[in-house]
Amino acid sequence: MTGKAQILVDPSPRVEEMIFTGPSRARLDAVAELVCYWEPGRMPDEDVERLLPKTDIIIGQTHLDRERIDRAERLKAVINVKANWEPFIDYEYLQAKGIYVLTVAPCMGPAVAEWCLGAAIDIGRGITKADGLFRAGKEAYSLAGNRDAVSLFDAEVGLIGYGNLGRSLVPLLRPFRPTIRVYDPWLHERYLEAEGVIPSSLDHALNESQYLFLLAGVSTDNEGFLDADKLDRIKKDACVILGSRAEIVDFPALLERAEAQAFRLAVDVYPEEPVPPTDPIREAEHLVFSSHRAGGIPDSYKRIAEWMADDIEQILKGLPPLRLQRAEPTLAAKMRSR
Amino acid sequence: MTGKAQILVDPSPRVEEMIFTGPSRARLDAVAELVCYWEPGRMPDEDVERLLPKTDIIIGQTHLDRERIDRAERLKAVINVKANWEPFIDYEYLQAKGIYVLTVAPCMGPAVAEWCLGAAIDIGRGITKADGLFRAGKEAYSLAGNRDAVSLFDAEVGLIGYGNLGRSLVPLLRPFRPTIRVYDPWLHERYLEAEGVIPSSLDHALNESQYLFLLAGVSTDNEGFLDADKLDRIKKDACVILGSRAEIVDFPALLERAEAQAFRLAVDVYPEEPVPPTDPIREAEHLVFSSHRAGGIPDSYKRIAEWMADDIEQILKGLPPLRLQRAEPTLAAKMRSR
Amino acid sequence: MTGKAQILVDPSPRVEEMIFTGPSRARLDAVAELVCYWEPGRMPDEDVERLLPKTDIIIGQTHLDRERIDRAERLKAVINVKANWEPFIDYEYLQAKGIYVLTVAPCMGPAVAEWCLGAAIDIGRGITKADGLFRAGKEAYSLAGNRDAVSLFDAEVGLIGYGNLGRSLVPLLRPFRPTIRVYDPWLHERYLEAEGVIPSSLDHALNESQYLFLLAGVSTDNEGFLDADKLDRIKKDACVILGSRAEIVDFPALLERAEAQAFRLAVDVYPEEPVPPTDPIREAEHLVFSSHRAGGIPDSYKRIAEWMADDIEQILKGLPPLRLQRAEPTLAAKMRSR
Amino acid sequence: MTGKAQILVDPSPRVEEMIFTGPSRARLDAVAELVCYWEPGRMPDEDVERLLPKTDIIIGQTHLDRERIDRAERLKAVINVKANWEPFIDYEYLQAKGIYVLTVAPCMGPAVAEWCLGAAIDIGRGITKADGLFRAGKEAYSLAGNRDAVSLFDAEVGLIGYGNLGRSLVPLLRPFRPTIRVYDPWLHERYLEAEGVIPSSLDHALNESQYLFLLAGVSTDNEGFLDADKLDRIKKDACVILGSRAEIVDFPALLERAEAQAFRLAVDVYPEEPVPPTDPIREAEHLVFSSHRAGGIPDSYKRIAEWMADDIEQILKGLPPLRLQRAEPTLAAKMRSR
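YS: structure for the whole thing
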């Protein structure tokens, strides 16, 4: 087995089915020796220490300080299989040594975008609501049942945040020929224009959008930036879809306004998950609930497995990775888990 | 007012707000004298007889036999504002005389397509279902809540029927990069290929599709063609969306299979509407109900009003209409109301 | 052979290879009896008279007055294989009798659009010119050779005429993300907006366009409408491509301005064809000549053959044609050959 | 002026108009102090040494070894304004220190793609050739002049190399609905599939393509890889466009085959530039010459200026660059200038 590459697989809290869906495991076995740790928790230190010097690639959030990195002489890439950036991995030092730091974050984009679109049509057209009315024998037909139906066609759309989620969503919206405004303080307005969207201030996006997609990640800068005051700027009866992280918004204020029918709302994420069984929000009317289901569908995990295999094959051939996202040191620092 | 064109508006069962949403009425008033009949039912014969000789355009389903048509010497167009072709209008004779016979049918396409897409994502991703589970305190998070979630991305999609509805739906599906098979016995396979879809037999489309959109109109040929035997060919756990007319399918057999979870189902149309209050289908589980709400949203009626105004302006200038659909005599005969 | 359909093929001045390229002849033989007249000129009257009562479809410009049409009891379609509308065919009466009048005009659209795009890049980027300079040893490299190079990316583009040619060209231009203005007096501005182009007055289109595509057909109304005065409104150094018909423009004035380098020019059509051998325009500098080659490439004739076969198969099944264009009676009258 | 950023501009052999077209200079002046060296050759060492400690951004190919980089304590980015990677800049060390290494290479992509498309249509449709025939009084009209005309519509297309040039070209080809095969040994086949192209072996791409775009960069691995044997695999009468670098091909063998009409050819780059005045290739028939004009048009330099300004604004705000390309250390080493 001399010369075969070695991959250390230490993905907790991801489990095997999240990492190796489909034929990807077999593809990796063909090019490398895999050493996997599937127990709950992380691979024991003694195993890590022993394996590091011969490891070419690490999949997971194994603790990696400078000393460990220096001893991992063959290390070519570290693949972060969670969305967060852990403080116990020295990303800057990895990058300084020319080691790829990759993340599977974009693999979730398509599924989240699909859910966001489905949720937007749901609350715009009243799909979940109509099902309830029909079952209650209270349905109305045709125009009588559609008095408040709004449509994405030619609509004013706002995206708060244009990272992986926003970039996955925009192509799904295009055939509706909407006007798309984007607020994202990390992106240059000329870059946004080149993407075919309209750079916008936060207030303008909130005021003007019939559909408002909340897709920003949480950084050290922006926690709760959608506070009560900002929420009051949302256009009356807009369709608001919270698809990224609950921490970006004053969550109680958001729900309060939805219940008061200031706007329509679909929510996938919560400040605390699981939501406590007796949490009164379960009774809230006039909104559609999901349970952190926008991204983590089987197809997303299959995409992770495939893209990892693709990029590992590239890297072991001495070629740059193409599919996973490279860490952006500046931003990774801001995006770190608390 | 000499020389100003005259438009006879006799749209029953459409009502004023369905025909003249937005500024369209003002646009028509600028180019013609409108004589409208908004009472329930059709314009009285004596009014029609009196007005016909000076009428340039008829909006509605006014009875038009050969004799009347011959007397309407200035008549340039008849605009059918319902989806059906009425037997008491002699379409062939109108066309023989070079009078445009136009229908607003395509104006409903975008809204129906949007609903179909929303319904497909709903049953594929479990949006309505998840809302119910959350409210019942039975939700599961992330992958645990997504065991049976399927996605339109790269999916096998089947369209049964490729008329106005199918043609409106396909562009909305494209960004998901699906394989799209179409069964439509009225369309040449080379035409379908040029549209970028795969011509398919009915059985093949039923067998292969993870998402199956039932979008055929009802003709004299095809009533109930999706019978129990055909329904049994649908792929296990497919997402089936009934968006056109209930008459094309053995409706009780369809619901029975959905309840038995042979496939997932969203339904917008019923053999009898309104559905009787005590109809047991209201209790059926494992499907999403709508109430003939796919097409008739305010935006659709606004589109009707605008497209009519656009085409009337064209016709009164001596130019051909561009927006509404022209009757296809061969097919109109097959599509006639019973 | 009882019951087999009969097709009368009388296509002069089109010749066999223009009509039956590829396997289309075999496809038609499978569904019909073909009676073809390939000699120069039209099928003799006595043959026509004898064949008419059993003819289902006519391909060509056979003389068809009312009397003949009345005797052609089985006639279902007449397919015009030239771009012009001949006065000796009574199109209105054919249509009054529910007989399809079809034209192959749209089959030429793709090839013309491709040529127009190639010609636009040629004169914008100096492709033909650079080849001449290189051969003369006078070439300059990189920016020094590109001082006057202009690009379609983000350019201001004008289309004069938006029929088959314009509609084929616009999709080819889209990836350059240009602003596209269209002047077409037969089309409603709201129709043009829905096509994603900007309706424009003629003067505005002439003034503003860096690339100007002259694509209008000739009608009884518009001969020479691009007169010297209009040509003087063209933006300095614009790239002008004449791709439809020379009759729409004051041709000598057009060439004079190109030679004076008021704008750049590519020309495919001429007032008289072939251009006389000693015509001084052959010496004209600063423009690119073609010789009525934009549309009539082998692929276009193959498309004609295929689309005819497709539509004939449809019609013989009792279904409407889908590929060829139907005559528009109002416009056909205006477009008739002189 | 304390605290204002400092930009060192040392772009030789690029000159001022290539770097600061349009309003970009003013944008940079607003956010930084610019120190520019426009003389022929590079900024004198003593100036560089003096300026380095206070420099935030370097535009150009200033010599940068480890020692200099260590002294440039504020340095945030080095922007390479040439396509080549110079050996006297220590890119790895820059990256190890978290300093962005950016290149303007993608700014040339659109112009090169446009030229390649124009050249492909030119030799496929015979545009330059037809102009010569017309001027010689030898033109033929319509089909007679189009016997050998081929079209991009539905064509078999091959790309040799899929870097910035290929990625810019593919969107321009899409509306022709071609089959696109790509040979690029640095790219994973699954990445190419996700791009909507068909990964292909070199031989297969050469054999099957009616249009063949030679777009590979020169690396240490691939010089002259398109040798006489490979060139003999090109499909008879294919349209070959050499748009990247002459070094990838056996240039004399390429021209010999074009003259023998084995295939059609358009060439923009040469082994030696300028081509010697008396080089016999200037007499070669059956091909179209350009003079390294594909990329360097005014619009490309304008794009460089804008994208640099955009990214400098981002970087000076502490945000990552979005427009220019980041150096890929693995590949940069392979792509270095000789």
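YS: worth flagging: The longest helix of chain B spans residues 298-316.
IM: good catch. Also Residues 183 and 200 of chain B are 5 Å apart (CA to CA).
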